[in-house]
Write a structure and sequence with these properties.
There is one protein chain. The chain is α/β, with parallel strands linked by helices. It has a domain of 203 residues: 3-Layer(aba) Sandwich (Rossmann fold), CATH 3.40.50. Helices cover 28% and strands 17% of the residues. The chain contains 11 helices and 11 strands. It has an 8-stranded mixed β-sheet with strand order 2-1-3-4-6-5-11-7, sandwiched between helices. Strands 8-9-10 form a 3-stranded antiparallel β-sheet. Strand 8 and strand 9 form a beta hairpin. Helix 1 crosses helix 6 and helix 3 packs across helix 4. The radius of gyration is 24 Å and the shape is globular. The protein starts with 31 loop residues before the first helix and ends in a 15-residue tail after the last helix. The relative contact order is 0.11.
């Protein structure tokens, strides 16, 4: 009698598998709900086993995200989520790791950690919720708030220039940079899937509405009735055309983008989006803002560069092959050590 072993087939994951038993504690109407629902919908479509997924967050409203995803998760400390996530990828590079952060968490105390993660090209998916306000701490202006914005901490209006998160990411040479909107869930889902597919650091800015402390910050681009006139959906290899009637486009006038009527210019005069162009081109696109330009949405940049953790792990293997595996005991007892004695005045 022979016994045949039948290999187990992976069970397809569904949105329900990613919903936890935790009560979702965001204000009613918060844009975070839409982002959470989109993540729970599209992650099963990425084909990654749930046990290989980790969500790491810092501090802020967005950072409650790991509680609501039925995967592994770490609710870390203010601004340090990219650092913890980097260590996690070095320890287990097979994991799919998401960093969930906000404009306050990621671009203030966490700004240093964020830019160095981007320049290293660690294989992480960084999702930055941008509501242009500190929501959890009750409405102070944030690093992305516009000049003149009146808040509890700037009652006469902020005198600071706000960060453009995409420009920050591009200046740090991020290999994948994209933008979407909380309520534009189909678009957001497509961007998240592209981010997961990318090998290296994926940086996705999500316009997110805080209806308590900064309601309507993104109304022109979030409202389905006005979105077409105020946004430019970027598609690789396609001309930059926008508007409800698809009658407006972007061309380059010297080094300056310019809005034109499509009917007034030759087709080849319009800018064609190229995700793989030089970073200076992507930076130029990232600077387009209302009211002069439509707001670019979608994937600005997607290029291939060596992945940080792969290189670090390979260096360790190369060193072991050259000098042997070594041991901690031998290292401590090596001649590169010293003794502090009492005769040196230390006791």
């Amino acid at each position: 009698m022979t016994t045949e072993t039948i290999p187990l087939q992976p069970v397809p994951m569904t949105k329900a598998d990613l919903v936890t038993d935790q009560a979702v504690r965001w204000c009613p109407g918060c844009g975070d709900y839409a982002i959470l629902a989109t993540m729970q919908k599209v992650l099963p479509e990425c084909g990654i086993p749930r046990e290989n997924v980790v969500f790491v967050s810092g501090i802020g409203c967005s950072s409650r995200f790991p509680y609501y995803m039925n995967t592994y998760g770490i609710h870390s400390i203010h601004g340090r989520a990219p650092t913890l996530a980097t260590g996690l990828k070095l320890a287990n590079p097979d994991l799919t790791v998401f960093v969930i952060t906000g404009d306050g968490d990621g671009l203030s105390i966490g700004g240093n950690h964020l830019i160095h993660t981007l320049r290293r090209n660690v294989d992480l998916n960084i999702i930055l919720f941008n509501n242009r306000i500190y929501g959890l701490t009750k409405g102070q202006y944030s690093p992305t708030s516009l000049p003149g914005h009146k808040t509890k901490s700037s009652p006469m209006g902020s005198v600071e220039q706000g960060f453009n998160p995409l420009s920050v990411a591009l200046a740090a040479e991020a290999t994948f940079v994209a933008r979407s909107i909380d309520v534009h869930t189909k678009h957001l889902g497509e961007v998240i899937k592209r981010a997961v597919e990318h090998k290296g650091t994926s940086f996705v800015e999500v316009f997110q509405n805080c209806n308590i402390f900064n309601d309507g910050a993104w109304e022109d681009v979030a409202n389905a009735k006005t979105r077409a006139e105020h946004t430019l959906e970027l598609v690789h290899g396609q001309p930059m055309i926008f508007g409800a009637a698809r009658d407006k486009g972007i061309r380059l006038n010297g080094f300056q983008p310019e809005v034109v009527n499509v009917a007034d210019v030759p087709a080849d005069a319009l800018l064609t989006h190229d995700e793989r162009a030089q970073v200076s081109y992507h930076y130029l696109i990232s600077r387009m803002t209302l009211p002069e330009y439509p707001v670019p949405l979608g994937v600005l940049r997607s290029v291939d560069k060596p992945v940080y953790e792969h290189q670090v792990i390979q260096q360790g293997r190369d060193a072991a092959a050259k000098m042997g595996p070594g041991s901690l005991e031998d290292l401590v007892a090596s001649n590169e050590s010293w003794v502090v004695s009492a005769r040196n005045g230390l006791h």
